[in-house]
Amino acid sequence: MSPVPRNLGAVALLTGALAPAAATAHVKWFAPYIVGAAPAPIERTLTDTWFWTGIALVLVFFLATRLFERSRAGAATLDAMDRITNPLWLRLDDFVRIVIAGFFVAIFSVGGVYLTPDLKTPAEWVSWLQLLIAAGIVSRRTMPLSAAGIIFLWVLALRDYDPFHLLDYLALGVAVAAYLVLEASDREEWRRHRFEVLRWGVAIALMWSSLEKFAYPEWFYPLVEEKPFLTFGLPRDIFIPMAGVAEFTMGFGLLATPLVRRLSAIALFVIFNAAVWPFGRVDLIGHALIMAIIVVIAADHTRELHFWGWIRRALIGVPVGLAGALAIFVTAYWGLHGVFYGSDARTMAELQADGRATHSYSVEHPHGPQVLETLLSDADPPPVLPIDFDAEAVADAYARSMAGMHDEMMEGLQHDDPDVAFVLGMIPHHQGAIDMARIQLAAGTDPETRELSRHIIAEQQLEIDAMRAWLAARGIEVPES
User: Which residue range or ranges hold the DUF305 domain (predicted)?
Assistant: First the structure.
C-alpha cells in the first residue's frame, strides 16, 4: 500500500484529568509501516503503570463531572452552554450539511483521493463523483443519493486498501451517510437520531484508532523524535500510552451523559485545531468531518439517552461502561487482526530482533529507523541515505539515481508508438526526480529545498500513477516501480 502518510495530530490535555497529558492523535502511515505485523501482546499494556495511571485519572474526572452534572450547578452549567450555543443549535443541520459539502469540494480540489488525503486513486472520475456528492447535499431529496455515493467510495477504498486499518474511518463514513439519510427522512422518530449516529461514528473512530498507541507504539517513535514539542517533555514511553488513554476515553466520553460528552467534545476540538499548525492544511482537510461533528456534539442541546440510559446515568456506569468498552474494542482489534493476517503474524519487536526496521522510507519522516544494510546495498531504485552520511556518499547516491533513470528512459523511448514512448520515458524521469528528492530529504537541511522536495515527491507520484493507469487501460505492460 502506498498512500501518502497521514498527518499525526495532537492528543493532549484531558482538561483537568490527564495533568500534563500528551498531544497525539491519529496516525495512518500505511506507506512506511509494516501494517501486517501483529499488534504487541495486550499484556504489555495491562502491565504498564502509566496506562493504569491514565485510566485512574480519567475515572476521577468522569465521576467528578457526573456528580457535578447531577447538582443544581451542573444543570445551570448545561443551561448556560445551551444559551451560548443556541444560534448554532437552531441551524445545526445547515452547519452539518455545509461542512459535509465543503469537505467533498475540498477533496475534489485536492484530487486523486477517495475520502481522505491518505487514500490515493488514479481514477479521475472519482473526483467528479465527489463534486456530485457535494451538490446532492443541497437538497433533502438528493441527500440519500449523496449518502449512497459516500458508501460507494468506501467500497472502492476497501477494495483497494487494507480493510483492517480503515475500520475507524469506515465508522465515520457510515455515520455521515446515515446522517444524510435520516436528515432527509419525513419520519421524525428517525430524524431525531441523526446527530446521535454522528456521535457514535466519531466515538467509534477515536476509540478504535487510539488502540494503535498500545498495539504499535513503534509507529509513533519517528514522530516523537521529529516533533518532540508534542510530548510536553514527557518521556516517549510515558507519552504514548497516556495519549492512547486520552484518545480512547474522550471517544468514550462522547457517548456519555450531556455534560461529559460536551466537555469531551470541547477538549477534542481544541486538540484537533492544535494539530493544524504543526501538520498543515491537509491535516485540516483529513480531520474536517471529525472536527465538525465534535462541534455538533458540543452544541447539541439533547438531554435524553436513547440506549442503555439507566446505566449511563448511574455513577457505577462510568467504570462499568469504560471497562466494557475497553474489553469490546481490545478483543475486536486483536481478534480481527488475527482474522485478517493470521495468528502467526510477527510483532514489531520480533521483526526488529531480526534486524528489520519498523518501516521503510517515509517522505514525511525521513529520520525514522531504517536498516543500514538496505541503505548501503545496490538496491534498485537507489537507496536513501541517513542524514549523517558524508558528501561523497550523497553524491554517489545522486549519481546512481540518475544512472538508473537514464537507462530506463532510453529503453522506454524506443517504443514504436510515440505516445507510449513518451509515457514510458516520463515514468522513469519522474521516478528519478522522486529519488533525488528523497535523498535531499534524508541528507539536506535547508527548509526551502526540503519543502520543494516534498512537493516534487507528491506531485510526481500522482503523475506516475496517472501514467501507469493510462498504460494499463491500453493493455500495455506497466513497468515495475
Answer: 391-471
CB proximity list for 473: less than 8 A, separation 6 or greater: none
From first to last of its 481 residues, what are the pLDDT tens digits of the chain?
333 333 333 333 333 333 333 322 333 443 345 667 788 899 989 999 999 999 999 999 999 999 999 999 999 999 999 999 999 999 999 999 999 999 999 889 888 888 877 777 888 899 999 999 999 999 999 999 999 999 999 898 888 777 787 888 888 999 999 999 999 999 998 999 999 999 999 999 999 999 989 988 877 776 777 677 777 788 888 888 999 999 999 999 999 999 999 999 999 998 888 777 766 666 677 788 899 999 999 999 998 887 777 777 788 889 999 999 999 999 999 999 888 888 777 776 666 555 444 444 444 433 333 433 333 334 444 344 444 455 676 777 778 778 778 878 888 888 889 999 999 999 989 988 888 888 887 777 777 887 788 778 878 888 888 888 888 888 887 666 5
Contact 197, 182 (CB under 8 A): yes
Helix, strand, coil shares of the chain, percent, nearest 5, are 70, 0, 30
CB-CB contact of 8 with 25 (8 Å) = yes
**Which residues are CB-neighbours of 89 under 8 A, at least 6 positions away?**
82, 299, 300, 301
- Residues 250, 78: Cα–Cα separation, whole Å: 19
Rounded CA-CA distance 136/130 in Å is 10
**Of 338, 362, 341, 358, residue with least CA distance to 349:** 358
Q: Does residue 9 sit in helix, strand or coil?
A: coil
Please state the domain extents for the chain. 42-348, 372-473
Biggest CA-to-CA distance, the chain:
83
Whole-number Å distance between alpha carbons of 408 and 404: 6
Q: How far apart are CA 262 and CA 325, in angstroms?
A: 19
**Is the previous residue joined to 117 through a cis bond, with omega within 30 degrees of 0?**
no
Residue with cell 516517549: 236
| Inter-residue contact 297 to 254 (CB < 8 Å) | yes
- Cell numbers for 286, please give them: 483529513
Q: Give the pTM.
A: 0.69
Whether the CB-CB separation of 170 and 152 falls below 8 Å is answered with no
User: Rounded distance, CA 28 to CA 20, Å?
Assistant: 25
Nearest Cα neighbor of 411 from 390, 387, 427, 435 is 427
Q: Taking the chain, what is the end-to-end CA distance rounded to the nearest angstrom? A: 13
Q: d(Cα 62, Cα 72) in Å, to the nearest integer? A: 18
Q: Are 184 and 141 in contact (CB under 8 A)?
A: yes
